[in-house]
TrEMBL record:
GO-annotated biological processes: methylation
Entry GO MF terms: S-adenosylmethionine-dependent methyltransferase activity
Keywords, in A-Z order: Methyltransferase, Transferase
The protein's name in its UniProt record: Methyltransferase domain-containing protein
Top-level division of the source organism's lineage: Bacteria
Amino acid sequence: MSIKKSTDIGVLKDVKDYWNKRSDSYSKQNIAELHSFKRDVWKKIILENAPRKDKLKILDVGTGPGFFAINLALEGHDVTAVDCTEGMLEKAKENAKVYGADVRFDKANAHQLPFVDEEFDLVVSRNVVWNLESPRAALKEWSRVLANDGRILYYDANWYLYLFDEKLKEEYRKCQQEADRLYPDDCPSRTIGVNMEKIAYNLPLSKVQRPDWDMGALESCGMSVLKVDENIGDKVWEEKEKIRYKSTPMFMLCAQKHQEN
């Protein structure tokens, strides 16, 4: 497959266009999660790693259809959620209304948040950082809106490192084939996959080893890395996901903002 390089502006537009088109299918996926074991498992994992407060001020960056935001708001926390795509925000608002979750939604870029310094106790995110054209700058911005001793908690994976690693590409291919064989009714669209590969090829984090990169980036932003779990997917994925994503395991990073002297 021949993949062309794109400009930064072109990549950002491509990412937004992709997720706008995926908003309906991704929303259905999130709703299914809210009706599965994942709802309680995710809630437990997040709150176990959050600052100890009865009512947290939480920011969900790249909320998508709102799974994290809705889940945490229903636990009584003060939740704000942002996304840069209109399609995802529309779905998130619809879903929050259905579930009776009180969430403040804003359209915003992960690199430029419309909030004052030190506004939140916790910033959460899932499968977002890999999408970013300037991920280190985004993490610095997330740190800015955190209160002292506040935490960043996010989940991601080396989703497209196989585009730059032949051994990993073969492992990825075998995992896809095995998942397709065992779950023939749950095969992802190849067209969607190819389109995302073209976009991912031009994103900076597709070609670096994570979470090593993340630990260094967070520390450079004045954060202390408290916990890294390189196999968090074992706790939050169904069996079919564990098979399909065996070569791209999901990791968790929890970091705390240094208190200013």
